[in-house]
């Protein structure tokens, strides 16, 4: 027996597909038009009778050689009970010369519809093989399967559109929240600056030292405003792929020492420790990398108690890259925050410790590191601290 095609009988919608397959097989063999129609109709009606009882059946088309004659056969394996005299098979039996029913163990039945191929038609194993390839190359989907596939595609498209809508709504919410936070963060230092300026006017002549103190406070708040504005500008450049870099070869540890010395002046409430591996020379943008490292140090200070230590370390990786880490002894991050901490506009929601910021510092930092060809990551334990690390590739 040489199998040509196999079809699962899942639904009545498979019947037109079965008829087309039967006609295609008979046509390829060179049977007459009336024989093509008769054979296809008989097979279709037998399948209809089976589908009326069960959806657990298989149809196979094959060619067998019996007593020096080639026979085109359609066999249906089903768990529905039939006999050769079953009323449901009478119409098919009128159309086909041979319709046999065999009981198979344990509970299956085999329906065989056989049509002898005229001796005038040349049949060989090679022709049968080409016929099987021809049928396989045709569209293998039944109408039912095609409907299922298209429904699945429609479902996936709808799900994708719903997800896009959800993400769009979430982004709009984040933008609204960001604008609210940005206006608050900008308004706060400006309000303080205005208040100190008004109070300072009364001490301009009476108490110059007091006036100097107010000017220092105004300078600090003005620095906050400048930082916020710079973040907004950098964010706009990143979103438009216009963040530029000026790479130059420099020594990494010396550069870090300069950044940490400046951090000590800005954050006298914390101590700092340097833990360097061997020296490393590579190419990087000093201004942008200082911005990234300063962001990480500022975050470490923000989220750790006064008097605790911030450790800045380096680790050389076989002349391929140098890892730079900033570790604090702060509140740490939850597993949820770990996965989102580098997202734009994301701010850690901690009710016990409110800190200022637009939720852009770590996002900008991550993009600067990516712009250097490096990677950034974080390790953290809640209530023990966090370590933010990034790699800086070695470039000649």
Kindly give the count of domains: 3
N-to-C CA distance = 70 Å
Helix content: 40-55%
Class computed from helices, strands and strand pairing: alpha+beta
Q: How would you spell out the order of helices and strands?
A: EHHEEHEEHHHEHEEHEEHHEE
Percent of residues in beta strands = 15-25%
Rg (C-alpha, Å): 39 Å
Categorize the overall geometry: elongated
Q: How many beta-strand segments?
A: 12
Q: Provide the CATH architecture of the largest domain.
A: 2-Layer Sandwich
**Low-pLDDT sequence parts:** none
* CATH class bucket of the largest domain: Alpha Beta
Indicate the mean pLDDT.
Answer: 85
Give me the CATH fold name of the largest domain: Heat Shock Protein 90
Largest sheet: 5 strands, antiparallel
Give an overview in words.
With 396 residues, this protein is α+β, with helices and mostly antiparallel strands. The protein has 3 domains: 2-140, Heat Shock Protein 90 (2-Layer Sandwich), CATH 3.30.565; 149-239, Signal transduction histidine kinase, dimerisation/phosphotransfer (DHp) domain (Helix Hairpins, Orthogonal Bundle); 248-393, 2-Layer Sandwich (Heat Shock Protein 90). Helix content is 49%, strand content 22%. It has a 5-stranded antiparallel sheet. A hairpin with a 2-residue loop joins strand 2 (57-66) and strand 3 (69-78). Helix 1 packs antiparallel against helix 2. The longest helix has 61 residues, at 143-203. The protein is elongated.
